[in-house]
């Protein structure tokens, strides 16, 4: 799916891939939460939810997140901005990794996946209302448009 994103990103645009992919992530997290809370006798739900999550992540946050952080910072701040963005990205990944097992033990897997679903809905709203489309724009045009 990352290959699909790479092939179509300049034709389709960053925002549509993000909006579509994150919408799929929301659906997959609802499926996974529902499996653990209500549908544990239907394991195909977990498999579909997991495959949908991975595919949607690979077409959206996976490649587009890295592409957009390289585009949105103005030239004079690009090095520092990229450094901070990468630090936040890896920090958030570490937080999710280290918090998942304790949260699962405390709340149960279903509630944890629903919680991640709420975070995904918040990211979807952020993308819809804040993230600009940069398709077909030079770095200078992006800087002028965003700042």
Automatic annotation (TrEMBL):
Gene3D superfamilies assigned: MFS general substrate transporter like domains (1.20.1250.20)
Annotated transmembrane regions: 17-38, 44-69, 81-100, 106-131
Subcellular location: Membrane
Keywords linked to the UniProt accession: Membrane, Transmembrane, Transmembrane helix, Transport
Any one of the GO CC terms: membrane
Location, primary (coarse class): membrane
Signal peptide (residue range): none
Keyword Protein transport: no
Topological type in the membrane: Multi-pass membrane protein
Keyword Magnesium on entry: no
GO molecular function, one term: transmembrane transporter activity
InterPro entries: MFS_dom (IPR020846), MFS_sugar_transport-like (IPR005828), MFS_Sugar_Transporter (IPR050820), MFS_trans_sf (IPR036259), Sugar_transporter_CS (IPR005829)
All residue ranges annotated as the Major facilitator superfamily (MFS) profile domain in the record: 1-135
GO biological process, one term: D-glucose transmembrane transport
UniProt family annotation: Belongs to the major facilitator superfamily. Sugar transporter (TC 2.A.1.1) family.
Record's protein name: Major facilitator superfamily (MFS) profile domain-containing protein
Organism: Punica granatum
